[in-house]
Amino acid sequence: MTGEFLRTSTIRRHLYGATGLALLIALYLLTGLTGHDPWRGDDARHFGPILEMLQGNHLLFPAIAGEPETDFPPLYYWAGAAFARLLAPFLPLHDGARLATTVFTALAIFWITRAATRLYGRETRTPAALLTLGTLGLVLHAHETQPMIALMAMQAFTLAGLSHIPTRPVLGGVQAGMGAALAFLAGGLPGVVLSLPLFVVVITACPECRNPRASSGLIIGLSLAIGASALWPLVLHYQSPELLALWWRNEWRELWAGAMSGNEFARLAELLGWFAWPLWPIALWSLWRTRRHLLRVSTLLPITALMFALAWIILNGSLSPASMLPLVPPLALLAASGVPSLRRGAANAFDWFGIMTFGVFTLLVWIAWSAQVFLWPPGLARHLVRVAPDFALRAPEISAIAGIAIVAAWVLLAWRLPRSPNRAPANWALGMTMLWCLTIALLKPWFDHDRSYRPAATSLKIALSGEREDCVAMVGLSASQRASFHYFAGIRPERVINNETQCGFLLVFDDRSDAQKPAPEWQQIWEFRRGGGRQQEIFRLYRRD
């Protein structure tokens, strides 16, 4: 009896301890990573440069279907290509490449927890990891081909290094310098904005770092960051100076030219409200609690990182959710520092709000599955049929059994969760992991059907199979569509310049059924329609007569 009780107690301690946290992180990161095509949007778009590198092209400067892509430097694409090549015997190229996101997300979580431990103590290590997992805006980007995840990870690496400055300045400076250099290689000038100014702020405004040892560590780190950051541009200058000039012009223009206007700040606040939940309410509580000690490195460092991230978002003018990822590390640090001091009533309310929130989201996912299988509710079922009239869910009973098991495991784990200051963050991490696993179990076939360009590319490849070899020009294709046609059909669509092209074929993307022909000499030989309603997409192929 006593032995059984001890075994049960040991299992429970491991399940709700470090072992359980590691298993939860692994389940969160690996679920839904493989088994589906590159989905339209960032997932397909950022696989394009990886595919070029796998084919031995554009190894130094990213490109999509042969055209230079200036959005990100090559760090993430190098990692994606390495994983795709390494796992090629076991996984499709796009699934292997997506593992780079998993590794960078895991590194970001690790470095956030290390920084929290150094700044606030060991009791904040677990809340830092749990709150990062529970962030609403992170989950989708952590499972797609997304270079911003690499930038976020290197930002967290820089923060972890700077958090070491008061105690081990040389080691901290070297770590921060490496993080800043890799942040530049991951994000370009945004990486510089998010990392290098932190050195200057810490060395000038933090009383704990105004001593020769800390200053020397920061100077070493800053020198390492600047020197290492110059390596890629120098190599690129000697190999392809025109690409370096193109990259520099685009980086500078995108960094400053599109600053937000006044009416966009409301949309930004709305986006941040859900993207950074539940980090920002606890972070505000932490700031209030430490309002008299804002110049301590434990408070100054994450606040400064948060301010620089917000400044970059405002100057860049982008309201895409992926652009909000650099807010996660500093907010996670601030939130982790506030968890141990949460009052019992606030912690209980936060806990129950998380359970109720994920309970509602779970119900919505089941309703979406029911609309596919039982055509109920009717309104949602009609919408799904209109958007994808040829979709049919196969083996719904298997997905239903998996969904029931996932929900049952969540209820059991949440019910048995020990009472502690970490209970509320643990419930958010458990709930987010459960919701993502349930969504993959019930709705992944729908997303794969609705968001993959494989059918269109395969049909186009068949249409061109009987034609003589010639290049294909394009009008209206997005980056994700060009990458998908290159991957699935082996076609590199070329741009039309000044309404002229030497190609014998013209591929046109449109969302209107009554689109006019480009010119009289072009004869339509192929058409492919996907989706329906406002999401309808139409591809037409013309041959020069």
TrEMBL record:
The keyword Magnesium does not apply. InterPro entries: LipidA_mod_glycosyltrf_83. The keyword Cell membrane applies. The chain crosses the membrane at residues 15-33, 100-120, 126-142, 179-206, 218-238, 271-288, 295-315, 321-340, 352-375, 395-415, 427-447. It is found in: Cell membrane. It comes from the Bacteria. Keywords: Cell membrane, Glycosyltransferase, Membrane, Transferase, Transmembrane, Transmembrane helix. It is a multi-pass membrane protein. PANTHER family: MANNOSYLTRANSFERASE YKCB-RELATED (PTHR33908), MEMBRANE PROTEIN (PTHR33908:SF11). This is Glycosyltransferase RgtA/B/C/D-like domain-containing protein. It comes from Aromatoleum petrolei.
